[in-house]
Every structure is written in C-alpha cells, then in structure tokens.
Design a protein that fits this description.
The protein is an alpha/beta fold. The chain has 21 helices and 22 strands.
Length: 644
Amino acid sequence: MALDIKMPALSPTMEEGTLAKWLVKVGDTVSSGDVMAEIETDKATMEFEAVDEGVIAEILIEAGTEGVKVGAVIARLAVEGEEAAPAPAAAPATAPAEEAPAADGPAATPTAKKMAEQAGLDLAGVTGTGPKGKITKEDVEAAIAKGGGTPAPAAAPAAAPAPAASGERIIASPLARRIAADKGIDLAQVTGSGPNGRIVKDDVANFTPGAAAPAPAAAAAPAAAAPTAAPARRHLPLDGTTRPIDQRWRPIYAVWEITLRCDLSCRHCGSRAGRQRPDELTTEECLDLVRQMAELGTKEVTLIGGEAYLRDDWTQIARAVRAAGMDCTMTTGGRGITTERAKEVKDAGIRSVSVSVDGLEATHDALRGVKGSFQSAFEAIRNLRAAGVHVSANSQFGRKSLRQMPEVLDLLIAAGIHSWQVQLTVAMGRAVDEPELLLEPYQVLEVMAMLARLKPVADAAKVRIWPGNNIGYFGPYESLLRGTLPRGHMSSCGAGRSTLGIEADGAIKGCPSLPTSEYTGGNIRDNSLKDIWERSAPLRFTRDRTVEDLWGHCRDCYYNDTCRAGCSWTTHVLLGRPGNNPYCHHRALELLRKGLRERVVRVSAAPGEPFDHGLFEIIEEPWPAEELARAQHLAATGEGWLTD
C-alpha cells in the first residue's frame, strides 16, 4: 500500500509553509527518523523526518514551493508489497544513477550521506545493508559506533566544532551548526535530542553554557511535526464558595506530566509529545506543588511526560514526593532507561515503573515512531529489575495490535513484570490523524473476550491485569476483571473526585488525559492547588454529574446511574462532550441481540495541538450477514475473533 506524506504542522498556528528542500528523491529507501525535507515557516526552518519505512514512490510538491497548506499531500511512500514509481529518466548523455561512475562515493541514502559527512566518515569503508548494497543510516551509525570506516580525505567543514572531550565525532544538523557558529557555541558541549544523539536546532537554541546535560541515552527524538504547546491559560475564574462535596473528595492519585519533551514520536500520542512546553514549572515551583499535593491528601504521584527523565531535575522531584510521605511511580517508553538511569530510579525512591509495550516488535516500533524502541522497552525492564525496581507494563489496544496481545503478555510475563495495565487507543492527538489506528466500538466484543481468556494465564504467572478506565463495562466478564475493586465492578469516572492531572506548565485538570482547553480548572502559578481543586468548575464536573447529563444509549441504560457513561476522556474527545460511550461491552451485547452494531467515522480533523481532538459520529447499522454469526459465537463462547 502507499502512504501519503503530508505537509506537517510545525506549530499550533501554522497554516502553510515553504517546502524549501527535498533531501530524498524518488526511489530512495527511508526509515523512521530519516530526514526527508527542510520546511520553512515565517519563524524557522525545520527538518521533516520520516515516520514509516518504505521507498519514496512519488514527490508531488517541488522544492522551493511556497504556500503549501498544512495537510497537503507532498509525497507518497511505497511500503512493503508495493513498488515505487520509477525515477525520472536521466538525460541521454548521462548513465542511469546506479550505473554512473561513483563520483560522490558509494550508493547511500541522503541521510546516510549527511551523517557520514558530518562525522568525517568515508563511505567507501562502509558496508551497505540496504537494497543492492545501498548504505543506510543504520550502516553509518554502526560504523561510527565502532570507530570504523576510513577517514574522509576532504578537509573538515569550516563550521565544524571542536571534537568532544571523549574523542567521539559530533553529529549535528546543518542548521544546528550554523546557529552554533553564529552564537559561538561549542557543539561538543551540547547534548543532541535527534536520532542517535544528533544535535538539532532546538538543542543549540536551548543550550545554556555550564548547564548539566542529560545522559546521551536519554536523547530525545521528537517528531519533526511535534507542535510547540501554547503558553498556559492563566487567571481562570474560580467559584466564590467551597461546597461540602468539594471538601469531601480528595485527589488520592495524581498523574503529573513534568515535561512534554519526549524521545519517541508515537502515532497514537494524545498529547502530541515531543517538544517541551515554553513555560514549564521551575524546580522551586515543582517542589512547592509537591508540598501542596501532600497537604491536600494525595497518596500516590505518577511522573509522566513526554518522558519524565528528560527533565534535568526529575529525580529531585521524585525524592521530594517520597519525602512528603507519598508513593512515587513512573510511566515510561523506556528508550533511555540505561543501567545508570535505572539506578537513579531506585535511588530516588520510585516504587514502581510502568513500561509501555504496544505490540510485537514491528508493530510497536511503527506505532512508537522509532525503530528499536521495542528492544529498548524490554532492555528498560531488564535494567530496572536488575536495579531492584518493581516493574509493570502498559499497553494500548488498537486495530493494528489487538490480536498480538496474547503474545505480548507472554513476553511481558517472561520479562518479570508484576502488573499489566491495558486500555483502548483513544481518538485524541495524533490518533485523530490516523483513525485506522482506532478500534471500532463493536470490537469491544473481541477485547473483553480476549482479556477473559488471558486472565487465567496472568493469574498463573502472578501478574495482575489492570483494565484502564475505558475498558468495559458491565458485561459478563466485569467481575472476573474487576472483582478486586471495592464494589467488585467499574464505577463512574473519577476525574476531579479521586484523581488529579497536572501539566508541566502548572495547568490543573481532574484527569491527566482530558483535553487541556476544555478541562483546565486553573494554574498553580495563580491559585493554590486546594482552591483550584475545590472551586473550579472544570474539576467539579463529575461531582455534579447525574443521569440527566447522559445521552444516547447511555441515557436509558440499566447501569446508567452507576456507570454514568464511563470514561469522560474517551467520550469527550470522540463526540465533543461526555455522556455517551459507544465503547461499552454491555452496550455492544445489547445491540448484538438486535442484530445491530456501532462504528465511528471522523467528521472533523484535529487542529494539531497538544491534547487536541477532532469530532467523530456514531453510525448504528445492521451486522453484515457474514460477520453476525461469528459475533454471536464470540459473545456466547468467548472464543475466537470477529474475522479471520
């Protein structure tokens, strides 16, 4: 199949840009992280990286074209099973590229050539593993890592920085080199956040001489299209009074995004993480927030990102949480959990770390946007356990990964996890851009039956399956999967009642996953946490919700007053408001009895900002005849899948 490569939104306000330069041509093989083009806006020139692996089949927008709209298809990528369009014929006087004399060295991808040039590496000494012996980015990385290859005979570029103290060659983008030269910055002192530690523009722009640099293994690799978050919304209104119900509920559990910076570029990321927020809290502000959480009654704080360890003071924050008498846990993609960092986790007192694994290797790497991220996740598990840290895992269920989950669980059990948290991929952030990643509502029939089949496997291995808040609800497996909860079953959304979400710029929400624009109740820089918790309308919404707020099938459901439409995040980002949840097992079974099912269709795209969403509509339709019998069999027996 062919994948459309679209003009990315490089900022929340970008509507169009200039495709300044193509760094690939038709027929080139690209991998995730390869730089394909340079794109200019009125603010900056940025590199655009490949997300998928394949061959450039067609280039639709020429270099130098101005006014290219965000979302416009600029090229097409042929993936496995499809041939790329033939490259344009060369002029008669020139031999075809593959047969031409190697005037500029062996055949190599554009990214491989750039990396070799920047590293002073002669490609003649590198063995290519790509098609027909073509040298790829990975080949150059391997040669650099081994110190191999023959030094290039050409003189070093004039803008080349002084060598690093360790003697390693420095890899940096041309734009980063130009900025460093203009500012007189020694690139040997700059930590790269690009693929394999490559120094990019933002690294130089944000560099502070003398500042402690994060360990190279934690190097961030945000997608080129990762947006920069808008400044925090400030001075939001609070109610003049505090009600008894507001004082009765307390945020026992807090999830804290301490930075939006990330070293992965996950295609299903709801926050579109990658770049740090422009106004993230200072260390002093973070430590004061820790104090306020403890005083408000918080018992556990989970540190997340982006990627939490990309913030320089993350261990200081974790230690403060523990010193305040609260448990501290952490969720990570695991790319930078080296043996050293695992020891830092242990020393900081973090009780448990949850590592994200979203499918088998090829699927996980494709979803996480970085080749090798699957192996990194399992290496993180090994490193953490070796350091004496308890490790769990979390997985998202989507259309591309669902049937792989039994094998994923086997691997996680073998790796030594103690718990497995599972949830559905939600129509938020980047997932809105690719609706094909989402399960259809009727597929909860498969999800719940599969989890029921996996429960005894996990029990035998003493691994706890922990269904997330959007897994359910009230079908025949409810007590099997949630029997250990206080009521023995799911209850309604806990946002703003028992849970608290904090964004890195001080925004306070009732749940970390909720959309920022609609659910931010205040900012810690303007008001105390206690006042925001007790007096802001966006944090009160579940305290005040009744059956009258429900709609659609949820309004007349037998479980309406207990469930109240389940996960508010899932429903709001899908339909524009909470109160009607099609991702419900009980509902899917009730519709199946009538020969009906529901699916969702995107009717409005997301704007491309952190924590954004589009709009979907629910389509209720008869089951196709060929699938109805299988659905009925699955519902009756718990065995099998809806399709082959």
